[in-house]
Design brief:
The complex is a heterodimer.
Chain A (H helix, E strand, L loop, with lengths): L5 E6 L4 E9 L4 E2 L2 H7 L7 H4 L1 H6 L2
Antiparallel strand pairs in A: 1-2, 2-3
Chain B lengths: L2 H5 L6 E4 L17 H14 L3 E4 L1 E2 L5 E2 L2 H14 L4 E4 L8 H5 L10 E5 L3 E3 L3 E3 L3 H13 L3 E6 L3 H12 L7 E6 L9 H10 L5 E6 L4 H10 L3 E4 L6 E3 L2 E2 L3 H14 L7 H8 L2
Parallel strand pairs in B: 1-2, 1-12, 2-5, 5-6, 6-9, 9-10, 10-11, 11-12
Antiparallel strand pairs in B: 3-4, 7-8, 13-14
Classes of the chains: A alpha+beta, B alpha/beta.
């Protein structure tokens, strides 16, 4: 299951993109593409153990 | 390779790392992400002096993509838009299985070269790219089966040990090609004496590529040129041109380092020369 703080957006105050991109609502920023794999629990990644932003926000 | 190589004025191979898989357009809008963008960036980098392009594949939204089919789209775009550039696929992939990471080796034709990460490195606060010896061996063996030359990526001095040990386990064709990587975190600290120690510790006859992350890109490329090595630049490793000024393109970074090499008396290798030097 994907991170509950993950959203897909095209823009924020500083960025505008042609496609929806991974956005962290906890950190309030677009995330790096590699981090998006953690947000989505892809491959062998798990946001509940691998992401410091999730762990801090979930405390 | 040594200062004597520099004095002899031997050609410098410039590798352009065009896109990577860690950061994307959120860091620099000029980072190419789609196959068409990567192909166009490869053509511009080749025109600026790059003879090798190091490629990753991404989804249209910039996220990492490992499937052979997506790498095929990328490499087809690159090959159709460039003259004769050497294609090098990444097999890096934090958190991805060996089977997933081997997918980029299976394009038709296969890449002439592929990267081989030589050991673990930390990512963020809770994650490690493991790159176990079993992973290294498995990726190496598939490269060998497909006639792909490995480019050994040495993120720190421990990976030089791993390289010596790999040579005890496997037969690699000469010349051995290694990229010495300097930066923060798990990487070798970017200091000149660490660079000198690293090139002294490489197996005899190793061709080395010099890669400094972020603000160290130009300085370490220059050291690589002066000590007989080759260089890798590009937006995968550094999104800035100068402090506070983001780079306009991969070609801009290639053009600058090509100018440094020429100024220092080493010509930039043509693709034909690069193939001969690399033993492709």
């Amino acid at each position: 299951m994907a991170c509950p703080y993950l959203a897909y957006r095209r823009e924020d105050a500083e960025h505008s993109f042609d496609t929806d991109r991974a956005y962290c609502t906890a950190a309030e920023t677009f995330v790096q593409p590699m981090r998006a794999d953690i947000c989505n629990d892809r491959h062998e990644l798990d946001h509940t153990t691998d992401c410091e932003i999730y762990l801090e926000a979930d405390e | 390779m040594s200062y004597e190589t520099y004095l002899a004025g031997e050609p410098v191979i410039v590798t352009a790392a065009l896109t990577g898989g860690v950061h994307g357009k959120e860091a620099n809008p000029a980072i190419p992400e789609t196959p068409a963008e990567i192909g166009a960036a490869a053509a511009a980098a080749e025109a600026a002096g790059a003879s090798v392009v190091h490629l990753h594949a991404r989804q249209d939204n910039g996220e990492r993509a490992f499937p052979t089919e997506r790498f095929q789209e990328v490499t087809d775009e690159v090959r159709s838009r460039t003259e004769d550039v050497i294609v090098q696929h990444s097999t890096g992939g934090t958190g991805a299985s060996v089977e997933t990471r081997a997918q980029p080796l299976r394009t038709d034709p296969p890449p002439e070269m592929a990267s081989l990460d030589m050991g673990p490195l930390n990512r963020y606060d809770h994650l490690t790219s493991e790159n176990t010896r079993a992973t290294v061996d498995a990726l190496h063996d598939e490269m060998q089966d497909r006639g792909i030359k490995p480019e050994l990526e040495l993120f720190n001095d421990g990976h030089i040990n791993e390289t010596h040990q790999l040579l005890e386990r496997r037969d690699l064709d000469d010349p051995l090609c290694a990229t010495l990587i300097f930066g923060s975190g798990t990487l070798t600290r970017p200091r000149p004496r660490n660079f000198l120690n690293a090139i002294d510790d490489l197996p005899e006859g190793t061709l080395f590529n010099t890669l400094g992350f972020g603000p160290h890109q130009l300085a370490f490329a220059t050291m690589g040129i002066l000590f007989g090595g080759h260089v890798r630049v590009g937006l995968e490793d550094n999104v800035y041109y100068e402090r506070g000024e983001i780079a306009e393109s991969n070609a801009q970074l290639v053009e600058r380092v090509a100018g440094v090499a020429e100024t220092l008396g080493r010509p930039v290798a043509t693709t034909e020369q690069a193939r001969e030097i690399l033993g492709l």
